[in-house]
Every structure is written in structure tokens, then in C-alpha cells.
Amino acid sequence: MVRSATALCAALMAIGFTGCDHSDRMPVAKVTGIVLYDGDPLPIGSVLFNPLNGGPTAEANLEADGTFQLGTYEESDGAVLGKHEIIVVAHTFPGGAGLPEEHINANQASVSLIPEYYSDFAKSGLTAEIVKGKNEIKLELSSKEPEKTPAK
After folding, report:
1. What is the tens place of the pLDDT at every residue in 50-95?
2. CA torsion sign, 106 to 109 to 111 to 116?
3. Residue 151 in this model has a pLDDT that exceeds 70
4. CB 128 within 8 A of CB 49
5. Which residues contact 83 (CB under 8 A, 6 or more apart)?
6. Residue 139: which of 74, 76, 70 has the closest Cα?
7. How many Å apart are CA 65 and CA 34, to the nearest integer?
8. Domain boundaries along the sequence of the chain
9. How far is CA 132 from CA 20, 76, 78, 143, in A?
10. For a Cys-Cys bond, which of 59, 75, 78, 108 suits 30, CB 3.0-4.6 Å?
11. What is the pLDDT of residues 123-149, one digit of tens each?
């Protein structure tokens, strides 16, 4: 009986220790930034950075002053190194301030505060290169449609 209890404790300890192993994580670098819409800070929304060479995405919610700190494995640990495509999503409800409780209590469909193409990786046109060290990203969004380049 004592031997089986000892074996059980050893097994539980082994599981606990392996659960803390982060060796499968890709290296990340700190990323802070700001999202501007027509020159003004975007006060609500989220950003999502998707690495083009594979790996986990990084995300952040915008602060009221438009700033953000990306997190991949933890809330603000940064993003994996390399080139990323980026989307920005900013939805609220008519007359709302974009607060989470408005989403829960709303009986209306949400509306985007920015053009919808910014929430599509294929259309946003937003990219960034994340390098070792600290990265500061400025995302400048516009209400004007981007100019279309003719196909060649």
C-alpha cells in the first residue's frame, strides 16, 4: 500500500514538472504599439499578429489611448520573431462605447468603427517585422479606401 502511494506521488510530481516545460515555445520579443485611425488613437478594439512563417499568433486589446502590448503565450510577453500579417478589429453597438458589457446586453447587431477590410488578413495591408529586443509598432488606419493597383 505504501509502495503504491509513493508511486502515485512520484507520478503526480512528474506530471506537474513536465507541465511547466516551455521548451516547445518559439522565441518571442516584446511588442508595444499604438493604433491610430485618421490620426487619432483608436480607443477600443483588438489587434492580432499572425506570423507568416508559422507559429502562434499574438494578440492584444487596445487601451483607451490606442496603445497595446502583444501577448503570445502570456498576456504581454510579445510576439514570435519574423514577419507578421496584422488585423485590427473594433466593434461596438450603436450609441455604445465598446465596453464588453454592451456586447452581452445588446439586442442590436454590432457595427465596426473602422473599415471591415482591416479585419481580414488578405485585405488589411498591415504587416510588421518583429526582431529581437523591444519592438514599437505604429498602425495608421484610414477611413479612405486604399488605392487599388492595376493587375499586371
Report:
1. 999 999 999 999 999 999 999 999 999 999 999 999 999 998 876 6
2. positive
3. no
4. yes
5. 51, 52, 53, 127, 128, 129, 130
6. 70
7. 8
8. 27-141
9. 24, 15, 10, 33
10. 78
11. 999 999 999 999 999 999 999 876 644
Q: Provide the grid cell at 119.
A: 479585419
Q: Which residues contact 42 (CB under 8 A, 6 or more apart)?
A: 35, 36, 62, 66, 88, 90, 113, 114, 141
pLDDT band at 111 (very low <50, low <70, confident <90, very high): confident
DSSP state of 64: T
Specify the length of the chain in residues: 152
Q: What are 108's three cell numbers?
A: 442590436
- pTM exceeds cut of 0.85: no
